[in-house]
């Protein structure tokens, strides 16, 4: 499918609108000031041969539903910058010029602030899905707008260190990530303005829409990111 087949939503920033395209599962495409950024592109969700070349590609971890060399190859141009966690870089040695970003590290590329933050499982018996210290989430700054893409994680103490998050993508896909109750718990750790569940598999939409039934808490937007 081409880019026109997906729903795109705009968010205002101090330096122009940010457009986020909801591709599917854990896959997002972002456009800001003419800069094209992809997070975990996967070719089973989109035919990236029909998309324009990416300026930036971010990979959270090496699982096949997040790290797809075919999608990267289809999106990659001579000026594309590819950012991965260390374990993903080890899985994709054929790509030259990969930037490795570990937890707590940050950089600014094309005017976008990028910080790598932890993502891992904490529930007993699930730690091997996403072990502590391996996978990335990302906090992205577009002018004055801060977007948190959590990657595959459960609620973790490090979320309490996040500040001024405007838009948060939290995964709701058991047994690999969070239950709806855990997603609500995670949001209370850092209080995003807008919460968008993603990577939610077979989780019923009504459970996601009802994460915060009262006036308090973030605005919950359920988009087509199964």
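Sequence proposed for the structure above (226 residues):
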């Amino acid at each position: 499918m081409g880019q026109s087949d997906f729903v795109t939503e705009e968010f205002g920033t101090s330096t122009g609108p940010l457009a986020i395209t909801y591709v599917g599962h854990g896959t997002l495409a972002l456009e800001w000031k003419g800069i094209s950024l992809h997070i975990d592109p996967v070719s089973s969700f989109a035919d990236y041969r029909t998309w324009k070349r990416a300026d930036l590609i971010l990979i959270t971890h090496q699982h096949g539903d997040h790290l797809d060399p075919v999608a990267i190859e289809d999106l990659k141009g001579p000026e594309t910058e590819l950012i991965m966690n260390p374990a993903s870089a080890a899985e994709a040695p054929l790509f030259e010029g990969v930037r490795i970003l570990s937890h707590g590290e940050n950089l600014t590329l094309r005017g976008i602030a990028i910080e790598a933050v932890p993502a891992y499982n904490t529930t007993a018996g699930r730690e091997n899905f996403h072990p502590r210290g391996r996978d990335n989430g990302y906090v992205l700054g577009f002018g004055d707008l801060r977007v948190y893409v959590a990657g595959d994680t459960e609620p973790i103490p490090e979320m309490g260190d996040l500040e001024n998050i405007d838009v948060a993508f939290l995964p709701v896909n058991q047994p690999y990530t969070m239950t709806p109750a855990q997603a609500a718990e995670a949001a209370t750790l850092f209080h995003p303005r807008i919460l968008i569940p993603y990577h939610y598999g077979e989780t019923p939409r009504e459970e996601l829409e009802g994460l915060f039934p009262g006036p308090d808490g973030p605005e919950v937007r359920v988009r087509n990111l199964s």
